[in-house]
């Protein structure tokens, strides 16, 4: 079966197993793929129809949270080997600097530019700057949601009773 | 080209600085300090350039995404917004410098400077946006950052008061969306200038507008801390450390006042007898409640916090008149109050960090150790109370004149009496902290405080300049007030679009 282990195929040989719910784990893998695909679909349909980076990012985070439920935090951290805060910064950078570069065209902030190119199979494909902006939104939303949920999931002591003012 | 870029820079510069600081990581505190203070300085220069540009060329307008007004979102800087941008910029710069020696390394590592920058993004955005829904978005931007700032460090009182602050603001934000929805249903546009033009020619039943005015007043009064809705303010502003307190006290309430002034000059022009009368009523009650609080406490932080309420009341009373003298006075007092409140917070912050005490009864005789700081505090006290050559005087002069002209003699007397209360409450701090019996000087903390004093001196110097140069600055404030008492001059930019 090609669905034998999505994670193993991606190179994550060691999957941490704490509880042995085979059904949940197997289903989670399948459903994860479906949700991620749907989130990418939503993301690309965003410009003219409902969807976009925000909803797509939320769905992607939901998919990863599903894996988090089925497996554990270590697996997720191996799957996404980046610091969530760094990902947020990356997403913000994309969504600010893409419109900023466009100001070089002498147009107001956020004015979008489109380029149509011919590809062999797909035919005419638009390259739209709004897409790159939206990629930034997607990453930021997904990473923020994940950061919140993983922070709540880990029982890391964020602060004691006196916090930063303890001496 | 120039007009396309200039209006957006006050939003873009801090957000870019914030993102860069996110990348530099939390370990490198020194780099964060450099970036944050440089950004503050850039913002100050930028806002001065903006003021000069607007004085020469009139309003700076850009249509984001090249969607023309009233369909797209417009960024509109008139003189009022430009002056507030200057106030925000100078407070940002001095707060950042003040933080170097006061906020503590732990908080600095937990994204303190990026959060300050993101908050400034929201505050600046709320000042310059020309779209009422976009204003809501920028309100959310600075509120989100302020939730982080009020709880940063996670001390018990911060979490307790932060939760209260969060709850109050979430509820009032919901009502903000609600009132914007009402407005959109009845007018059919969200561009503030366009709403003004549509409402000037409004034929239908204006009762709905009175309802919207009340809902919007509820929202902005909660943010600004007007009379029935100020209950969260003394507690929440008391919780965070001094630099954050200065940032909140100087800026966040003023955003609420700005929003009141903007909406009440542009939207609610039909039923002035009710809406503006209500505004004046709440303003006077705010002054009275603030005065009671300022006299009741012996904690320096509480005294200054209740002085915020008095100032909010005085400014709102000026804006409630909505005539020429009232708006000039209120605008002048608004800028004056941003600067002097930050300066006072810095000065008491210096005292608190130096002595470790905030109760005035346990302090005394500090003038022997810190004569310069003591006399600076004295000047600040004269300035905030409005003793003539200093800047508070001119604002109150115009506001009182306008109140008497419009027949609100009682309110005028309250405004004048509040000056006495302010003078007494601040002088009480001065007398018992700097004069009085010597405290135990061996208990003074051996901290380095040159940057704490630097921030205070900058602010107090600005107050003195603002006061002595009132004649020179008068045309600037007059043109700032013009877009309030003559809203047609604000909405005029729409004509150029067609």
From TrEMBL, chain A:
Transmembrane parts of this sequence: 26-48, 54-74, 86-110, 130-153
Keywords noted in UniProt: Cell membrane, Membrane, Transmembrane, Transmembrane helix
Protein localization: Cell membrane
One Pfam short name: MnhB
GO CC term, one of those recorded: plasma membrane
Keyword Protease: no
Keyword Ligase: no
Highest rank taxon of the organism: Bacteria
Membrane topology: Multi-pass membrane protein
The Na+/H+ antiporter MnhB subunit-related protein domain, residue ranges: 24-146
Family designation: Belongs to the CPA3 antiporters (TC 2.A.63) subunit B family.
Official protein name in the record: Multisubunit sodium/proton antiporter, MrpB subunit
Species assigned in the record: Lacicoccus qingdaonensis
TrEMBL record, chain B:
Cellular component GO terms held in the UniProt record: plasma membrane
GO MF term list: antiporter activity; NADH dehydrogenase (ubiquinone) activity
Topology relative to the membrane: Multi-pass membrane protein
Entry keyword annotation includes Membrane: yes
Keywords: Antiport, Cell membrane, Membrane, Transmembrane, Transmembrane helix, Transport
Coiled-coil ranges per UniProt: none
Compartment(s): Cell membrane; Membrane
Entry-linked Pfam families: Proton_antipo_M
Domain NADH:quinone oxidoreductase/Mrp antiporter transmembrane: 130-419
A Gene Ontology biological process term: ATP synthesis coupled electron transport
Transmembrane segments: 6-23, 35-55, 75-98, 110-129, 135-154, 166-187, 207-232, 244-267, 279-297, 304-322, 334-353, 365-387, 407-431, 452-477
PANTHER family xrefs: NA(+)_H(+) ANTIPORTER SUBUNIT D1, NADH DEHYDROGENASE
Family: Belongs to the CPA3 antiporters (TC 2.A.63) subunit D family.
Name of this chain's protein: Multisubunit sodium/proton antiporter, MrpD subunit
Organism: Lacicoccus qingdaonensis
């Amino acid at each position: 079966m090609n669905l034998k282990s999505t994670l193993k195929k991606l190179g994550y040989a060691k999957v941490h197993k704490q509880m042995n719910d085979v059904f949940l784990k197997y289903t989670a893998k399948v459903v994860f793929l479906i949700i991620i695909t749907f989130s990418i679909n939503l993301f690309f349909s965003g410009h003219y129809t409902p969807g976009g980076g925000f909803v797509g990012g939320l769905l992607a985070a939901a998919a990863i949270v599903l894996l988090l439920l089925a497996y554990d935090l270590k697996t997720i951290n191996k799957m996404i080997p980046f610091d969530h805060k760094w990902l947020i910064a990356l997403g913000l950078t994309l969504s600010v600097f893409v419109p900023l570069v466009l100001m070089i065209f002498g147009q107001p902030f956020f004015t979008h530019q489109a380029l149509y190119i011919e590809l062999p199979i797909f035919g005419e494909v638009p390259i739209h700057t709004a897409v790159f902006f939206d990629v930034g939104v997607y990453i930021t939303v997904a990473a923020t949601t994940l950061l919140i949920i993983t922070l709540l999931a880990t029982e890391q002591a964020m602060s004691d009773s006196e916090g930063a003012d303890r001496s | 080209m120039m007009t396309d870029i200039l209006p957006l820079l006050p939003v873009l510069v801090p957000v870019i600085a914030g993102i860069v600081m996110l990348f530099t990581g939390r370990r490198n505190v020194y780099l964060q300090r450099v970036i944050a203070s440089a950004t503050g300085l850039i913002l100050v220069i930028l806002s001065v350039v903006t003021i000069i540009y607007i004085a020469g060329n009139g309003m700076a307008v850009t249509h984001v995404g090249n969607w023309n007004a009233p369909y797209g979102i417009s960024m509109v800087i008139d003189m009022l917004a430009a002056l507030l941008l200057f106030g925000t910029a100078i407070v940002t710069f001095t707060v950042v410098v003040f933080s170097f020696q006061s906020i503590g390394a732990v908080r600095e590592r937990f994204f303190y400077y990026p959060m300050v920058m993101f908050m400034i993004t929201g505050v600046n955005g709320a000042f310059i946006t020309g779209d009422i829904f976009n204003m809501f978005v920028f309100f959310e931007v600075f509120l989100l950052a302020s939730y982080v700032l009020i709880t940063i460090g996670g001390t018990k009182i911060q979490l307790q008061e932060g939760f209260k602050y969060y709850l109050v603001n979430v509820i009032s934000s919901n009502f903000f969306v609600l009132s914007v929805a009402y407005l959109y249903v009845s007018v059919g546009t969200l561009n503030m200038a366009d709403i003004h033009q549509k409402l000037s020619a409004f034929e239908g039943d204006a009762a709905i507008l009175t309802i919207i005015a009340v809902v919007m007043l509820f929202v902005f009064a909660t943010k600004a801390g007007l009379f029935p809705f100020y209950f969260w303010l003394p507690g929440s502003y008391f919780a965070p450390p001094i630099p954050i307190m200065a940032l909140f006290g100087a800026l966040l309430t003023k955003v609420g006042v700005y929003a009141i002034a903007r909406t009440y000059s542009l939207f609610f022009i039909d039923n002035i007898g009710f809406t503006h009368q209500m505004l004046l009523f709440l303003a006077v009650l705010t002054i009275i409640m603030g005065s009671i609080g300022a006299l009741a406490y012996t904690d320096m932080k509480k005294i200054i916090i209740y002085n915020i309420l008095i100032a909010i009341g005085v400014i709102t009373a000026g804006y409630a008149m909505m005539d020429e003298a009232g708006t000039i006075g209120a605008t002048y007092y608004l800028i004056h109050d941003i600067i002097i409140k930050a300066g006072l917070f810095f000065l008491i912050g210096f005292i608190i960090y130096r002595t470790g005490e905030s109760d005035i009864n346990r302090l005394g005789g500090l003038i022997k150790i810190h004569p310069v700081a003591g006399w600076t505090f004295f000047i600040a006290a004269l300035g905030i109370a409005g003793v003539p050559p200093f800047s508070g005087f001119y604002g109150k002069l115009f506001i009182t004149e306008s109140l008497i002209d419009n027949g609100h003699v009682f309110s005028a007397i309250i405004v004048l009496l509040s000056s006495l209360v302010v003078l007494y409450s601040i002088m009480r701090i001065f007398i018992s902290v700097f004069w009085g019996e010597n405290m135990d000087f061996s208990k003074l903390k051996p901290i380095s405080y040159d940057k704490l004093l630097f921030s205070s001196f900058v602010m107090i110097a600005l107050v003195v300049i603002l006061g002595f140069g009132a004649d020179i600055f008068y045309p600037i404030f007059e043109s700032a007030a013009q877009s309030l008492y003559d809203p047609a001059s604000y909405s005029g930019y729409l004509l150029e679009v067609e």
